[in-house]
Each structure stands twice: as structure tokens, then as C-alpha cells.
Write a structure and sequence with these properties.
This protein is an alpha/beta fold. It is about 40% helix and about 20% strand. It is built from nine helices and eleven strands.
Amino acid sequence: MIRAKRSIFSSLFCLVILFSSSTQAATSKIGILVFDGFLTSDVTAPVEVFGAATKKAWFSSYEVVIISTTRNKTVRSEEGLKIIADKSIYDDIKLDVLIVPSAYEMDALLDNKKLILFIQTQQKLASWMASNCSGAFLLGKAGVLDGKRATTWAGGEKGLAKAYPNINVQYDTNIVIDDGIITSNGGPISYQAAFALLAKLSSEKFADEISELIQFNRLASAFKP
């Protein structure tokens, strides 16, 4: 009887430890900027990839935080998707990763001094910075890409090089990784960039696990002869 009670107690103790470790509070934040007119897949791709990863024990220390560039946390994408952000750039927040999406009209964003300051501040705190599509222009304006290899939307490389000559702009490539910074063409390529970043934050094995989980791996295989 005593042995049985000890066995039951040991089992319960193990379950408590397992439950506690799998439900630990997130200590690292992946921030994704949003604003009216953002291109949907630039945001939804990393949300899906990292959102799925945070459900796993090996990535449970991370959480995804959507951050509005204005005090209004309700924003609508170019394609009509309405979302409510968790925070705004006016909140006191420290990020471990910042992802910057794009819009067809970037001028107002590039002139937003508070937004540029927010990006510059997060660069000093974060281990990784990332952009999709013309989001690279915001990183460029903030000086994040100075002296770095980077890319933007396919066809926009010359514009990026002209606007920010200190960037080593890369042409005809989906994603570019250079010293803690990932830039991509955006659109569907935002998924590829998200998986590349996930691999850097965890491992190639874990990134492949999420790729299989959301069946992204089937997309690549579908184009094989």
C-alpha cells in the first residue's frame, strides 16, 4: 500500500512539473508592426508561423505581440482584414524581435518620427530585426540597414539603393540574412522569411516541424516535377 501511494505521489509530482514547464509565462516578445493599409500576408505569415511555434514547449518562452503605429489599435489591411493590435508604439515595450511589414503608400510612415524612433529604440534592445517587402524602407530610414546586405520587394531594389545608398542592396533574391537582420520580398515570401527567422531563434529541425504542422512544406513539394 505504501509503495502504491509513493508511486501515485511520484506520478502526480511529475505531472505537476510537466504542466508547469509547458505553461510557463512567455519572457520573450516577437513584435509585428501594423498600420492602416498594411499588406496582409506580410503580417499574417509571421503570425501563423510564430503563433504555431509558441504552442510548442521548445518555443513557449516567446509570445507574438501585434503593435499599432498609432494610438488607434484597430487597423485594416490593404485587402480589408481588420485586426486589433495588442499594443501601440506609444506603450512601454521591450522586444526581442521586431518585424516590419509594408504598404503600397509608405510616405506617411516614413515621415512618422515617432515610428522611426520606435524602430531605432527596439534595434538597441532586440536580437533580431526583420522586414517584409517595402518595410525595408522603414528599416532604411531608421538606419538599421546601414552597412548591411538587404532586399525589398522584387523590382524595388533600385529605389531602396537610391533612397539609402549606405545599404548593400541585393537583387533577385527572396530573403537576405545579415548580422541579426532578415529582409524579404514580402507577399508569400513572408512565410519563407518567417521560417528562416524561426530557425535562427530555435533550430532548422524545429522550423521544419512547424512547416509540416501548417503544411507549408507541401507547397514546395507541389512544384517539384
